[in-house]
Amino acid sequence: MAHTLCERVAAPLLELHRKTTSPAAVGVLALVALSIIAYGLSVGNHHVIWLGVLLTVTAWYGFLLSGCERLLAAKDNEIRALQRDQAPVA
Hints:
Layout: H1 5-20, H2 23-43, H3 46-86
Helix pairs in contact: 1-3, 2-3
């Protein structure tokens, strides 16, 4: 089956994400980022707030990559199951 352009571009990025980042790490990063934003708001420092926003965007990106990885794995499993069901019995 031919891969789409999106799958060819995303495959190396998803593979790297799969090898280096756990979903728990993404959750911890999100909690740290939100804590930094709260601290920045409490002291009134906009630079600290922007650091928290940057970390929040990074965590959200990691969350989306984790979701994409799970969806692609489910799609691959579904394709393998269909191929196994359609395989000729000798």
